[in-house]
Specification:
147 residues, alpha/beta, Rossmann fold, 5-stranded parallel beta sheet, 5 strands, globular, binds adenosine monophosphate
């Protein structure tokens, strides 16, 4: 069985480059589509109910967050020489949820992330890695990060 769509989830921690290189290698060997995703850890302000229209200030703010995330992805992509046809995506929300949801809706069959990122080097797995492993409907590769 070969993978058809490989997703790299990056948080720009020091291990991200190592994680991305593993994913690039796997996607090449499988001739798979490759996507790069960063989630801006973001919760809408309290009191923002579904039946309320978002205020323009909130929308501008969210657009800015996505813009910053996209700029960081571009810098990261240049640094690691990411294949030019790799789609870059930024989502706002809780990282573990957005990664799982992205994979489910975009037909990803392998998620590649670090065993650790910005959280929890002291534990066996970081909180994002642990939650994605528990909830993803596809294979997940947690690349071992030791420091
Ligand atoms: P953590 O479990 O939060 O220490 O992070 C483990 C791995 O999850 C990281 O090495 C990244 O591959 C991925 N990850 C964590 N946060 C994000 C994020 N905000 N956006 C995309 N991927 C993330």
């Amino acid at each position: 069985m070969s993978y058809r769509h490989v997703l790299i989830a990056v948080d720009f921690s020091s291990a991200s480059e190592h994680v991305a290189r593993r994913a690039i290698g796997i996607s090449r060997r499988n001739s798979a589509v490759l996507s790069l995703l960063h989630v801006v850890d973001y919760l809408p302000p309290l009191g923002f109910a579904d039946d309320l229209l978002p205020t323009p200030a909130l929308l501008v703010n969210e657009k800015e967050l996505i813009g910053h995330g996209m700029a960081s992805l571009e810098t990261f992509a240049r640094k690691i020489d990411l294949p030019a046809d790799t789609a870059r995506h930024v989502r706002l929300g809780a990282p573990h949820q957005e990664i799982v949801e992205f994979a489910r809706t975009q037909g990803v069959d392998l998620i590649v992330l670090g065993s650790h990122g910005r959280h929890g080097l002291g534990r066996l797995l970081g909180s994002t890695a642990n939650s994605v492993l528990n909830h993803a409907a596809c294979d997940v590769l947690a690349v071992r990060i030791t420091a």
